[in-house]
Amino acid sequence: MQIQTALFFESPEEIFARVFSEIRPSLPRPKVKISYRGYANANSSIRMECGRLDVIMADVLQGSPASVVESLALILISKLFRRRPPAQASHHFRLYLNRKDVRRQLHLLKQIRGRKFVSGPEGAHYQLEEMFEDLNQRYFSGLMGRPLLGWSRKPSRTVLGHFDPSHNAIILSRILDSPEVPKYAVESVLFHEMLHLKHPAVHRGSRRCVHTREFKQDEKQFPMLKEAKEAIKRLCVG
Question: Nearest CA to 29 among 45, 13, 47, 44?
């Protein structure tokens, strides 16, 4: 399905109603109610009840170009009927979210509205601040500013670590804070997240690259990377 050039006088409600009729022409055109919520991201949702479409959009999308609203309508209504959203619509919407001004706005909203749990760097077996400073001296000449450091609420095996640029925080999975996990394996995860501070994500059109060529090249500096990956693999399988 192609994205049409929405008429300049179409309201977001009219766009959603039109797209609905294009996707399900056999059904009566519904009434549409759009509400805006102060989310910390660009999340949106949709539901249909008693012949009415209720759409909730993040307030950051209020005032978006008509083509962006139409792309979102194609995505949400397709999902409502368990269809795959048109690739063109998904691409167009991601392209808008990756605009520099929109990214900056989303970044600020996440700082203001987003909640970030940071337990603190002191673990039962490993101390993240000490580990960070040691890695900082060994690989970054001691020049990297220390972000917030902490352990996750729950011991995740799928996400062992992540860097949140909006809150300048590195969180490691509590599953790593164990005497059964070699220190070099914990260090490799922390080192990986520290590289995200050095090499921010690069946006190319609708794509977001978090592991650039420079990132991967620097990661090879870690001397026991192979052994660390093997230890982590055993941990995740176990």
Answer: 13
Find all residues with CB under 8 Å of 166, minimum gap 6, and list them.
Answer: 107, 110, 111, 114, 116
pTM, full prediction: 0.60
Q: In this structure, are 81 and 152 located in the same domain?
A: no
Q: Could you give the number of structural domains in the chain?
A: 2
Specify the DSSP class assigned to residue 141.
T
pLDDT tens-digit readout, 91-103:
999 999 888 788 8
Between the CA of residue 80 and those of 55, 131, 231, what are the distances in Å? 11, 47, 42
User: Quick one: angle between helices 100-113 and 87-97, nearest 10?
Assistant: 70
Q: Is residue 92 part of a domain?
A: yes
Residue type, 166: S
Domain assignment present for 233:
yes
Residue 141 in this model has a pLDDT that exceeds 80: yes
Distance CA 15, CA 70 (A): 6
Q: How far apart are CA 25 and CA 14, in angstroms?
A: 15
User: Of 203, 198, 233, nearest to 217 (Cα)?
Assistant: 198
Could you tell me the CA-to-CA distances from 189 to 34, 35, 128, 139, 237 in Å, in that order?
43, 41, 11, 14, 17
